[in-house]
Specification:
CATH class: Mainly Beta
Radius of gyration: 18 Å
Structural class: alpha+beta
CATH topology: Jelly Rolls
Number of domains: 1
Length: 285
């Protein structure tokens, strides 16, 4: 698919090509409010209904390329045998069953790839997050990817490396696969291990919010500070979600360990960034 972004997005509802219009300003204002209060904003039916079937089919065509190793992880995506105190939440081990198609496996002409690179879309996303601009993640694998969760599997609790996550559900499962999150459970200055530990242990459900997304919805999310997961997918259909990773600062690249977990391979860019990586804070990954 190769067509103007204004035809991919349902501009009758979301005029992303008209940043001076009152409707653009109203949508941005509402998104900022949602992100400020909840750490999450959903824009229903963001992709034009006439375009969505082709976009979904493109994503489904590369889904078989996903790296799908099931393994033990923790919420911080650091080695599970890291030397941590006995009560550290990083010692809570979970089974990660989701799979990822990396950016270099998604053809440049696919609608999701064109949307990710679009200046108009990036300007809109930046405005929603209240920023002068956003940068594509410098990571050659994780900047744009397709998340695939097969029936019987889930994506357990975790934090994102980048501050901002933008995603579109491209294929819904028959049931399950709900998005759950804990808004701003940590900050750039404080890990808040107590609350994180309580959520992981299932002893404090009050911190958890649940969201059922629909195909074509755009989700804006502050995933660096809000722990989140996708519950077990049930039925016969996998859950597919295109994930657009942006950051406030240029040059952010994922760690070697996390990259190996998610994609099963590491590139020279990841090894080179281990000692000079641009980080947005001093938190665990």
């Amino acid at each position: 698919m190769s067509q103007p972004i204004g035809e991919v997005v349902d501009t009758s509802c979301y005029p992303i090509t008209e940043p001076t219009s009152p409707r653009w300003q109203n949508i941005v204002s509402r998104a900022r409010q949602d992100l400020r209060t909840d750490g999450c904003c959903v824009l229903p039916g963001f992709i034009h209904p006439s375009v969505f079937p082709a976009l979904s089919a493109e994503c489904a065509s590369v889904a078989p390329a996903a790296y799908d190793r099931v393994e033990d992880v923790n919420a911080y995506n650091i080695p599970v045998d890291s030397p941590l105190p006995a009560d550290h939440p990083g010692r809570h081990i979970m089974r990660r069953g989701n799979a990822f198609v990396a950016r270099d496996q998604i053809p440049a002409g696919f609608a999701v790839h064109e949307l990710y690179r679009s200046d108009q879309f990036q300007r809109f996303v930046a405005a929603c997050f209240g920023l002068p601009r956003v940068h594509e993640l410098a990571d050659p694998l994780a900047g744009l990817c397709l998340n695939v969760i097969s029936p019987g599997l889930e994506h357990p609790w975790h934090f994102d490396t980048n501050e901002f996550a933008v995603s579109i559900l491209t294929q819904a499962p028959q049931s399950g696969g709900d998005f759950e999150y804990c808004p701003n459970i940590r900050t750039a200055q404080a890990e808040n291990f107590t609350d994180v530990r309580a959520v992981l242990a299932g002893t404090d459900d009050r911190l958890v919010r649940r969201l059922t997304l629909r195909p074509g919805d755009l989700q804006l999310f502050l995933g660096r500070y809000s722990m989140h997961r996708v519950t077990e997918v049930r039925g016969d259909i996998a859950r597919h979600s295109a994930i657009f990773a942006y950051t406030e600062r240029p040059g952010v690249i994922g760690s070697v360990e996390r990259t190996r977990q998610l994609f099963g391979r590491v590139l020279p860019e990841h090894r080179g960034a281990e000692t000079s990586a641009v980080r947005v804070d001093a938190l665990l990954d």
